[in-house]
Amino acid sequence: MRRSLWETPRWWIRRRTGGTWQDLIIDDDATDDYFHEKLRMTRGAFYDIVAACTPFLQRSLTHYRTPLMPEQLVAFTLYRWASGETFDSATSSFGMGRSSGIKAVRDVTNAILFAYPDKIAMPTGRRMLQVTRAFAAKGFPNCSGCMDCSHVYVDKPANAPAENYFDRKQQYSVIAQVVVDLDMRVLDVHVGHPGSVHDARVLINLSLYRRAEAGTLFLADAVGLPYGVRTRGYVLADNGYGPCPGL
After folding, report:
1. Do 187 and 122 contact (CB within 8 A), yes or no?
2. By the 8 A CB rule, do 106 and 87 touch?
């Protein structure tokens, strides 16, 4: 017996509701796929983040023009990061104004940093052993990660010398220096130097470099590398960086 078109399972139907936020809070078979599409994570992971961040968001909720729920603020922030949409475009899909959207991203960013203070860190213990073994299998014994800088494009700064942010690709940007392991897990990140600053200069101004200089960044037993080099650990980088401990 032929099935009627009206009997098509709900998850086949294209969503047409009041915006991204309203679609996310619908409880049906399509929600998990929709979370992956819009927020790059499962619904369960999203609500874990909401639960962890809510205590740090409660104090700021009264400062919004209209009442907003913690899950709405977290969802908007994750969507903004995942999609890269402008505030003007993204906020309309979440039932908030542009100024509230900007504040939401700041508040949620701070909440995540307070809620997960140890999630972005150099590996230790069993995880360190897994990482160094994986790099050793690729020919890099005692290696903990890879490091490079990327440029995040911004509008021309209004209250700062614009030439400082004008990078080699003739764009206005700020620099993000990131260290990752073989699974692309972020181990260390710093964002904020103007786009004209050289990668090597970014590095020497960071705590990562100071810890390497002090010998506290890598604590593994020393191993021998080619040409008589002995090291307790290091990260890989390109020749945009000068020679320095642990690099």
Report:
1. yes
2. no
Q: Tell me how far apart the alpha carbons of residues 170 and 178 are, in angstroms, rounded to a whole number.
A: 22
CB 234 within 8 Å of CB 143: yes
And the tokens for 27? 């409880």
When pLDDT is cut at 50, 70 and 90, the band that residue 16 belongs to is very low
Of 177, 169, 178, 171, the residue nearest 153 (C-alpha): 171
193 burial (CB, 10 Å; 0-12 / 13-18 / 19+) is buried
76, 91, 115 — which closes off a domain?
115
Nearest of 233, 231, 200 to residue 132 by alpha carbon: 233
* Whether the Cβ atoms of residue 175 and residue 149 lie closer than 8 Å to each other: yes
Residue 54, domain member (yes or no): yes
Task: Give the span between the Cα atoms of 35 and 176, in whole angstroms.
Answer: 27
Q: Is the pLDDT of residue 110 over 90?
A: yes
Q: What angle do CA 241, 246, 247 make, to 5 degrees?
A: 25
Residue 245 lies in a domain: no
- Per the model's pLDDT, the better-predicted residue between 71 and 124 turns out to be 71
32: containing domain: 5-115
Same domain, 177 and 195: yes
Q: Are 191 and 149 in contact (CB under 8 A)?
A: no
- In angstroms, the CA 66 to CA 102 distance is 14
For strand 223-225 and strand 229-231, is the pairing parallel, antiparallel, or unpaired?
Answer: antiparallel
Q: How far is CA 234 from the centre of its chain?
A: 23
